[in-house]
Write a structure and sequence with these properties.
single chain, 16 helices, 460 residues, 16 strands, four-stranded mixed β-sheet, 37% helix, alpha+beta
Length: 460
Amino acid sequence: MEISNNYDFLATALRQRRQKLATLINFPIILWSGRSISRNYPANTFPFRASSHFLYFAGFPLENAAIRLESGKLELFIDNAHPSNALWHGEMPKREEIAEKIGADAAFPMADLESRTAGAATIPVQDYRTLLKQSQTLNRPLSSAKSPEGIDLELTKAIISLRLTHDAAALGELRQASAVTVEAHKAGMMATASAKTEAAIRGAMEGHIIAENMTFAYPSIVTVRGEVLHNEQYHHPLQTGDLLLADVGAETAMGWAGDVTRTWPVSGKFSPTQRDIYDVVLAAHDACIAKIVPGVEYRDIHLLAAQVIAEGLVDLGILQGNPDDLVEMDAHALFFVHGIGHLIGLDVHDMEDFGDLAGYEEGRVRSSRFGLGYLRLHRTLRPGMLVSIEPGFYQVPGILNKLENRSKYKDVVNWDKLNKFADVRGIRIEDDVLVTEAGTEVLTANLPTHADEIEQLVKG
């Protein structure tokens, strides 16, 4: 574990977060970092990723650690590494050194935690061993993070209110993640001319992230099968006429995420039909970002994307009718089924372990509509929020060939015209957009979106 040299600034920010939390709740909190999980035998583990809620207040990805927060004070619980570990992992910082770096008020071995748990709230972590330890230490069962009860629910709401907007320390990390993500995408585009498979482009993109001493905020999507929204297969050959969709994001050492998608032609030149659809998606992307200001409803941004996409598909002859009516009947969702985006922060879908408690304003519920059911964020935008804007167009066989959809939309889809766009499997354009007092700052603006510029990057 490496401890940043810029710890004075970070320790101040962490202390301010704890003090803000103390103004929202009046009971103690214990947050666990989690532990690494074995892949196939105990010593061969998956890369460790600390709980995001732990990271938000502790700052560093400490393994098998816990913090106790009360009245703005932090107690750190972590064991010193056994001396024999130095053979395999090198010298590790001592408990007192770690405590100083994160601005802890006291530090203890893990065994002392059980005597400090009375009346404490917590957030369940993802790995089962730690979750079991949480329940045993607190001597009570724990509900899912999506459906907490009692003081755990109070804590969840307090953390949501803090993490919805980002302080200066968080924004510094997020800007780093965005900058590395942008350069990774450029590396992928420039590697395309010599690549034979999706895996080669993935390697170029992830290689850049690794070279910056970062990791991946989520499993990379690098595919010519862009209609599969979370495609994690990389074996397909690259052929002239293919579009490649790359959804790849860097994560800083402290856990903060970038999230960007670009779509480009393998040949370096969009076909006329690909360019037509690309420009429709780009128009939706640009319109949404232009409308983001504090006070705007994120749901309205999603509906704006739906409107622009519907208008564009009518202009191309794929949809027939009045765009307003088409959106009302969810015809656009045949091709744009997911939401316009999500929160970004310590998690690429920030706080999604809390489900709609985080994504939706209190009192709002998820829609059952075809065109709204996958909306991840239904809140009023506020300065300091970081959101993704990611409209798309996809030809998903399971949606387009569904008999119910064929029947419901038989009069509004020109299926013969759609067949002429068979070389467009999936297109998505995604950027990370910070809501500011004045409007927006696109953290990933250094990565081009216009088709001509994309083609130039791919051609080198």
